[in-house]
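@channel sequence for tomorrow's demo:
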Amino acid sequence: MNIDIILQNMLNPPVLFFFLGMLAIFLKSDLTIPQPLPKLFSLYLLIAIGLHGGHELSQSGLSTYIFKALLIAVVMSMLVPVYSFFILRMKIDVYNAIAIAATFGSISAVTFITGITYLDTIGVAHGGFMVASMALMESPAIVIGLVFAALFAKSPDAEDENTSIKEILREAFLNPSVFLLIGALAIGILTGDKGWHSMEPLFGTLFKGMLAFFLLDMGLVAARKIHELKKVGLFLIGFALIMPMVNASVAVAVAYFFGIEKGDAFLLALLSASASYIAVPAAMRLSVPEANPGIYLPLSLAVTFPFNISLGIPLYYYMITTFWG
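structure tokens (generated this afternoon):
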């Protein structure tokens, strides 16, 4: 892999702000971001990417090509938690295997946004409809985790199973990030070109700066979680580093077979390689309370997320260029 590809990603300002946040914790700086603001950054990023994707989708329409790309996204989001679960069961208990498999079967919106910024920086085209693929990939892992919990980990303490299942399904399909993302996508489709240009000064021009703020906060949070990695052991740390590369390789092979274009294939690989640290952990706390959040959350946030935005992005792009040329 060409070192220039790594440097192009590492010297991206938002990525550097992530590591600046981590450095602040390691050096015991008093740097903090007031707590309501990170939530505002999250809402901003979801609205911006949803609106932009909806605008792009309104221009391109739903073609056979877009349908194929969305179908690959859904299949990958169902496939990854299944094989991850059986790999994890070789070493750890069923509850934590379900929670970790679901976490790695879902996606990270911030990783996706960082990937888009990388493609824009190096001038590689990608479809705005890929926002829809991100929304579609968020929830299936939660549902599969729910199914695995019913099949392999029935809790004798479950007092009201019907209520629990209803709550988990609500979390899977109506969790705030998915709801807002799909809503913004729909607004972008409905308002089209005119609507996007009226919102573009806020949700287009300022996008990269807001991403830098968000990643600065993520760096602070990830660094605070690093000490928890002592609890998880080398097998799980290895899993959090190797599985993203395996998942990305599978996605690249499938995308190549179905003739997906270079930029879209890269985003499919990156989504397949990413892991959730918001929606799935919240759902697993409800569905599999026996699983330890001190294991699956730091694996996603303090290992896989930094790996993907620093080395993973250039590695997956290198894989893409190897196949596509």
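heads up for whoever presents: Residues 39 and 214 are 9 Å apart (CA to CA).
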